[in-house]
Amino acid sequence: MTQAPRILLFTGEGKGKTTAALGMAFRASGHHLRTCVIQFIKGDASVGEVAAAAESPHTRIIQTGLGFLPPPGSTAMGEHVAAAQAGLRQAAEAIAGGQFELVILDEICLAVARDLIDEQQVVELVAQTPPDRCLVLTGRGATPGLMALADTVTDMQCVKHGLHTGRAAQKGVEL
Question: Which of 46, 117, 123, 134 has the fewest CB neighbours in a 10 Å radius?
């Protein structure tokens, strides 16, 4: 029996999808496993995970996103589509290159949900993942097709969130 790659998916409206994936990167680093994180929406290099990855010989973060997405139909969407497609190419290189045991595609589910990337492109990327690798997909709005690809799916539910009551994003928590 041929072993398939591990495919984990973290989705839902609650906080913690990227945090869970970065926790996996931290755990992998402890075992000297190399991790590549491609961030499809985020583009702020001042966040804590980018600083932490710069200190780790085992973790690389590539931000291809441009930040918060404009409303559907906005003229700026073309720039976000181009950025997400560049992220997809980076992800394909990270997977095919064989230098990373763990590849995290942060916010790729949202990129699919917002039509920056076609779901079939992700299906093809997963199909190219070697059996000895682990691939993590994160983001709100995971489609049933993306969930079907994964062997583990976690749906983060928001019960209460400080941002909804006026708390500002905090370093080490949201930033």
Answer: 46
CA distance 157 to 150: 19
- pTM confidence score: 0.94
Tokens of 26: 């931290």
Residues paired with 155 in a beta bridge: 11
Other CB atoms within 10 Å distance of the CB of residue 119: 17
Identify the three-state secondary structure at position 102.
Answer: strand
d(CA 35, CA 21): 11
Contact 101, 129 (CB under 8 A): no
92-119 tens-digit pLDDT: 999 999 999 999 999 999 999 999 999 9
Say what the alpha-carbon torsion angle 44, 45, 46, 47 is, to the nearest 10 degrees: 70
Three-point CA angle 108, 110, 116, nearest 5° = 80
Q: Which amino acid is at 29?
A: S
